[in-house]
Amino acid sequence: QVQVVESGGGLVQAGGSLRLSCAASGIIFSMTTMGWYRQAPGKQREWVATITNGGTIQYADSVKGRFTGSRDSAKNTVYLQMNNLKPEDTAVYYCRIIRPGDYWGQGTQVTVSS
């Protein structure tokens, strides 16, 4: 059974940092392309970053230069380091195994106060 579990969300002041983690199990992690998404209240879910199994990382323009994705194959985990957070980054952040298959985590809340 494939599982995707996010952690690391919380409340932070504008300009602060958080690191999200996403642990995947039940799948050959080295084969996965992973993604981070977010959904703010009243808005559609949007793509944040993609981390391929080869280590290529792409970012949405809204987070480029502030967020950094990484993966640790020994821990079957991907991370999203978020720096210089802004109130508009407030959202539920989701991790996704884009392929193989399509699996989502339950999300973790990130709240940035002004």
Topology of helices and strands:
Elements: E1 3-7, E2 10-13, E3 18-25, E4 33-39, E5 46-51, E6 57-59, E7 67-72, E8 77-82, E9 91-99, E10 103-104, E11 108-113
Parallel strand pairs: 2-11
Antiparallel strand pairs: 1-3, 3-8, 4-5, 4-9, 5-6, 7-8, 9-10, 9-11
| Biggest sheet architecture | 7 strands, mixed
Strand % is over 45%
Coarse shape: globular
**H/E element string?**
EEEEEEEEEEE
Q: Distance between the terminal alpha carbons, to the nearest Å?
A: 40 Å
Overall helicity: under 10%
Oligomer: single chain
Q: Report Rg.
A: 13 Å
Describe the structure.
It is a single chain. By secondary structure, this protein is mostly beta strands. The protein has no helices and eleven strands. The strands form two sheets. Strands 2, 4, 5, 6, 9, 10 and 11 form a seven-stranded mixed β-sheet that branches. A four-stranded antiparallel β-sheet has the order 1-3-8-7, with no helix packed on it. A hairpin with a 3-residue loop joins strand 9 and strand 10 (103-104). It starts with a strand and ends with a strand.
Summarize the structure.
The protein has about 110 residues and is an all-beta fold. Helices cover about 0% and strands about 55% of the residues. Strands 2, 4, 5, 6, 9, 10 and 11 form a 7-stranded mixed β-sheet that branches. It has a 4-stranded antiparallel β-sheet with strand order 1-3-8-7, with no helix packed on it.
